[in-house]
UniProtKB/TrEMBL annotation:
Pfam families: EamA. Keywords: Membrane, Transmembrane, Transmembrane helix. SUPFAM superfamilies: Multidrug resistance efflux transporter EmrE. It comes from Methylobacterium currus. It comes from the Bacteria. GO terms for cellular component: membrane. This is EamA/RhaT family transporter. Residues 27-154, 177-305 form the EamA domain.
Length: 315
């Protein structure tokens, strides 16, 4: 039995390479749906920020999602008992780096403009490719690099007009870059855990438990603002952040990373920017100009260029 690596990554030790059209289509669909779910997070974080501090909102985002993730894990493993495997170090590391991602992401959203935070966070795929290339010896194919370049141009076009250079916001901009680094590590660690045969639900649930513990410590030691919301609307905002952005977004991302390489999957961060722009247009009345539409189109084109192709040989 022979396997041909996905063209998106050369010499990759990532997910299974042989994807039939139905399997590839469902994996990409999960990736897109996860991006749309995660794209709601900046709007919800800003919505609850008058009542809940950044560390607290990051904690509630994960903690309130745990019951749903646990139920999903039990359901998935009841249907597929072979997914009930011993934990791997990569799952534990995924929980730690995701805690860093959320801490700095929420700080970036509140420490700079949403456009700046989004712009710097969209550099995560660059770090995924670099870390995979340097640390894992995965040389990216030309199609992957071309798609990444087109997506970067699209992301810059999408939010470039709104990006502001302000010395008072440099700390928030820095937090956006650190967010991208942590998010890149999260992609690679989840991909590794899924390659070892762990189910998407178990990976997401266990990693979220670790993330919640770390964030609880951050709340206890660092939070200076309110921890609990005092209005029903803010409480519902936190619940939406947990169930939609975390359970839905991160869960679907873990599903996709079981079938797609991290280099391609990391382009989901660009779809988050598109989703955030559309939601801001619908919910906040922020009109989309021609450049924003062009940027969104370039992002979709870049993802289309970089997408994995079905291998010529099947197992």
């Amino acid at each position: 039995m022979s396997r041909t690596p996905l063209p998106g990554l050369v010499a990759s030790a990532g997910p299974a390479a042989d994807l039939g059209p139905a399997s590839l289509g469902s994996a990409i669909a999960a990736l897109v749906a996860g991006a749309l779910a995660m794209g709601l997070s900046p709007v919800l974080v800003r919505f609850v920020s008058p009542e809940v501090g950044p560390f607290a909102s990051a904690f509630w985002r994960v903690a309130l999602a745990l019951p749903a993730l646990y139920g999903w894990m039990r359901w998935e493993e009841a249907r597929a008992p072979h997914l009930r495997r011993a934990l791997a170090p990569s799952v534990l590391l995924a929980g730690l780096v995701f805690a860093g991602d959320l801490l700095f992401w929420h700080l970036a959203i509140l420490g700079t403009t949403v456009a700046n935070a989004t712009f710097f966070a969209t550099t995560a795929p660059v770090f995924v490719v670099l870390f995979a290339w340097i640390g894992l010896r995965r040389r990216p194919a030309g199609r992957t690099l071309l798609g990444l370049l087109v997506c970067l141009v699209g992301g810059a076009t999408l939010v470039g007009q709104s990006v502001q250079v302000d010395p008072a916001r440099l700390a928030g901009d820095r937090d956006g870059v650190v967010t991208a680094i942590f998010f890149a590590l999260y992609f690679l660690t989840v991909e590794r855990a899924r390659a070892l045969g762990l189910g998407a639900a178990r990976v997401t649930f266990v990693a979220s438990c670790i993330t919640a513990v770390v964030l609880l410590g951050a709340v206890a030691w660092l939070e200076t603002r309110p921890v609990l919301p005092h209005s029903l609307s803010a409480a519902l905002g936190l619940l939406g952040l947990a169930l939609v952005s975390h359970a839905g977004g991160q869960g679907l991302l873990a599903v996709a990373l079981g079938r797609l390489p991290a280099g391609f999957s990391s382009l989901v961060i660009f779809l988050e920017a598109v989703a955030a722009a559309i939601l801001a247009w619908i919910l906040l009345g922020e009109a989309l100009g021609p450049l924003q539409v062009l940027g969104g189109g370039l992002i979709l084109a870049g993802i289309a260029v970089a997408r994995p192709r079905r291998s010529a040989r099947t197992a």
